[in-house]
Request: fold
Amino acid sequence: MAARKKRSTKPAAAKRAGRAAGVPTGMTLHTYNVGFGDCFLLCWHYSGGRDRTVLIDFGTTGLPAKAPKDQMQLIAKDIAAVCQGKLDAVVVTHRHRDHVSGFATNAAGTAPGDVIRGLKPTIVVQPWTEDPKAKRKATAATETLSKSLALVRSLQEQRMVSGYVAAEAGAMLEAIGSGPGRGKFLTAMVEGMEGILNPSAVENLQTMASRHAYVNHGSKSGLESLLPGVRITVLGPPTRDQSPDIESERANDEAEFWMLQARAGRRAMATGSDESRTPLFPQARTADPTQSYSTRWLIPRLRAIRGDELLGIVRALDRQMNNTSVILLFEIRKQKLLFPGDAQIENWEFTLGKPALMSRLKDVTFYKVGHHGSRNATPKSLWKNFALKSAMPSVTRLQTVVSTKAG
Reply:
């Protein structure tokens, strides 16, 4: 059995009200131990009918210590059992590996993503930056695009660049070996690139449901008809038109920068330049006898500098992807549950500047701590605004869950 914890509340008054008004009588939250990643299954209970289930993220970048190799398959099967074969909705806050890797499929149809696909979710909810229609619209000249569509195009170019970076970093790793920390450094870089790409999981999510909702601040979530009696508010991400700050982590003139980098990578692959060719003996370390000793000393250090530059690109991509995280607020009577994915301060700022929304967030009863506890994911103003936090245990105290790996 995959490690799972659950929280449930079904007060008698709520049950009576649920029968009368067709609203949930309670909700059970199943939290799965994926190690470093997110996986939450919300089961909304209705009197006289089946539970409604919403899966929020399913991914990991590192399983827990001593977990079996098939931990993700076990979790997928447990989700299927809890849902009794039918999943109502999948919410993917953003496309980082620690949130989507569980949706990957394989040719045999036995991967965790195949199991989730077999549950036939009614709808998949993703950030507006994943909308295929927006991507197609964003192929026109940059100057004719809205700012939001330009951002979508820039994100697509970033993902293309990430493929070239992964290939180059892999070649550098073979060339320089495991010299003073460089091998581990570049290995982390390649893994970071894979965390951004996730092609199998992304394709599965695009086709596993008949309905898709690509959401932004203030839009409908797409979950309203599936969860009667539950008020759902999309707090993030804002579009580029709503809040330019969501792209502030990136380089200046970011759209042009990423497009130029992508074009350069395409040209290199098309022309078969030296950088794109696989060496005959990739594991062999060689030295050009025509080079002086000082030159042979310099080349590995230049490669190390190049590695630093590549890692800078990885970090820029990583930060930007977090700023596209979906932020959802679920409200049912006095219960308010806040799920922010990995949203960073630039994503949050649009909500933090709205007094009416901050007033609604004041009495949040459950908070999924953002970005595994990272400092830039729970703004101090948001935390100070939570009125129910307390050092003293009580049934009304704010409950928090942080998904991370031990240590």
In short: Residues 11-21, 136-145, 249-262, 271-276 have pLDDT under 50 and may be disordered.
